[in-house]
Specification:
8-stranded mixed sheet; 8-stranded parallel β-barrel; 4 domains; D-amino Acid Aminotransferase, Chain A, domain 1; single chain; Dna Ligase, domain 1; Glucose Oxidase, domain 1; alpha/beta; 34 helices
Length: 883
Amino acid sequence: MMAKFVYFFGDGISEGRGDMKNLLGGKGANLAEMTSIGLPVPAGFTITTEVCTTYYDNDKKYPETLAAEVEENLGRVEKLMGKKFGDASNPLLVSVRSGARASMPGMMDTVLNLGLNDQTVKGVIAQSGDERFAYDSYRRFIQMYTNVVMGMNGEILEDLLEKMKHEKGVEEDTALSAEDLKDLVFQFKIKVKEEIGKDFPTDPKEQLWGAVSAVFDSWMNTRAITYRKLNNIPAEWGTAVNVQSMVFGNMGDDCATGVAFTRNPSTGEKKFYGEFLINAQGEDVVAGIRTPQPVLQEQGAGSMEELLPECFGQLMKVQETLEKHYRDMQDIEFTIEKNKLYMLQTRNGKRTAKAAIKVAVDMVEEGLITKKEAVMRVEPNQLDQLLHPSLDPNAEKNVVAKGLPASPGAVSGEIVFSADEAEEAAKIGHKVILTRIETSPEDIHGMHAAQGILTARGGMTSHAAVVARGMGKCCVAGCGDIKVSYTDQQFITPSGEVFKKGDVITLDGATGEVIKGEVPTVKPELTGDFETLMTWVDEYRRMKVRTNADTPTDSQVARDFGAEGIGLCRTEHMFFEGDRIMAVREMILAADVDGRKRALDKILPMQRSDFHGLFQVMKGLPVTIRLLDPPLHEFLPHSDDEIEALAKDVGVEASTLKAKVESLHEFNPMLGHRGCRLAVTFPEIYNMQVRAIMEAACQLIKDDGYDIVPEIMIPLVSEVRELGILRANAIRIADAVIAEYGVEVEYLIGTMIELPRAALTANAIAEEADFFSFGTNDLTQTTYGLSRDDAGKFLPFYVDKEIYPNDPFVAIDQDGVGELVKIGCERGRETRPDIKLGICGEHGGEPSSVIFCHKAGLDYVSCSPYRVPIARLAAAHAALIDE
């Protein structure tokens, strides 16, 4: 059977259906559906997305049978409309529009009024009896066609239009006469020949194929490519092309064009919301050429309800029909010609997170959709908008640089270049943006004090990004646009503008933009609808959602967002606070075991207090505590000035301290003396931490009757014998503490699976582990051989060139890293069927990764506190997709 590439719609007959979006694109499928349910849709046809794929696969050549199919369907449109394409006396004019299966508003090209030339314009005058309308349509066509199809700068002809209005002493296009517009068409054609070197095409068939090719070409224009990347739309989907008979909103005062939403797209309120223009075409509304008027009388003067009451009534009936039919909020485009309403498009409307939740909850209450459908209607990533302040969409902004949107939110503050400065400024009430080339664990106090963090280096899972998300702080990372100088206390933007310490900037963590000055923000609002939706979410998900948190404050935030425990407490973050850093450094500098133990004895009560606070907040919920992971050199200073200062504080020679720092130096610390390797050589470190964990748990059980099951996690295990030695040590310490307190405590000892060898030998490692937590940040690094902090220099190129489908540190690599996770799960359960399995890398809060974790059979995911609702919703999506 010969392939079919063109689908007709018109007069209640449509060859396509609403469920054929993959083939006909969203616009084509909805035009077919609206036609079939009896709505007034101008006749036309859709060229399928398969043609787009063929076009690009075959050096921009079309299938052999396409021309004949187009000709046949054009004939059907001519017959239905009673006009002929290219006929001088009774011409049919058409529009040519794009239509991908996923909505991409404004990203691709459109041509209106196609089929006009010096002969057919006379036929339009005869049809309409309106010379001005005919030449207005002609000049619009030349402007649009030369820009979209011929690649001419649109401002060139726009300047001629503005010049004409100036000469005639008018402000609006509608004030130009028929003669003015006729003269303008003449000027346009001369200008086209001057600029392009060839005449404007007069053959309607040539015009049609030029426009069709231009729409297919626009699938690969810069803005479409960028939009697809931001919204994870595959390039291979392609776009359809819709050729549709023109109806005219610019034929007089009984004509109009408009766009509308069946509910408010900003708030979700069940109130029709739309704008229109009398005597205009669609691009006038979208492009802001004229100020549009409201559809509803209550929304302002000059409304459609007042001026075109009959058409307003028709529109209200149509919008009600559409919403009931599609069972979702619709974004519609319409044209009125001679007091008759025509529908040009409907699609599920883009909406804010707040609106998405309200519409979903309201539609359940209205009986339009089920609770399961409501949960699936809200995209998990949308919730970010609700959980953090965002920039006022109406505010002006001067963007000076752009980095990675590492942690959402929107904040303004004075620039500072060190963590100490940030802390000092915060103490006296100043709001600051901590600006660093890159952050390290030693900057934690400044990051906590700052409103937001800006780094020149690092990726989406760099230290700055991970910590900022955990704190709920706005962060723009990897902003290579700026050149930071600590010496000069400034950074320079690509334009050469210099920003000094104390200058005010604004960060938009949702877009990665760095903006000059202070920009107003809008506070997040969590409504009753949010709580209602999240109650439904928890009914359907199977996986638990925990949080990555190191402080009681972070833990409380996460618990308030619905976290069901802590999946990762990074104990090293606690080591940098206050006076304990000195004790840690004393331990590192100690010459023998006794010296290390004396220093660790000072840290013990501090650690016990830390864990006591976490257990209190998470009462009755699991808490997984990772024992010390980073190499020891991270806790020591590196510059000569810092070494001199520390040497004085601890009473040793600077040269001795410098020698110690140098002795701890490693060429590749990520793969060096860290994690469980530290504890094999210095067991007293983990012994102190296990004692602190168990003492805090026992104390709360004994004094307050808490039900606590501490989960002690040993990091970076690659060999079961490592874990066996450290597990035995931990059990010895834990049981001794339990005996001292005279209480019964259940506790678990497990490990992070963050090395490929650990995943591959998980059956052996499970003999010594009560649980596995997949540390997918490091597992990604060690699987790919990438450093997440350095890969930002080239990873964007890999994504741009589609070598990698996306950044593997943002969304889990399901084919490689994911396969190791699945192997680890399967082999771990072979040995220990009841082993608890979770994930605690940054992927735990990324929706597609959460869905993967559900499929892999994990028991829980753990993520930053502010991503807990996102993970809950994604886990529910995963469960519902499975049904």
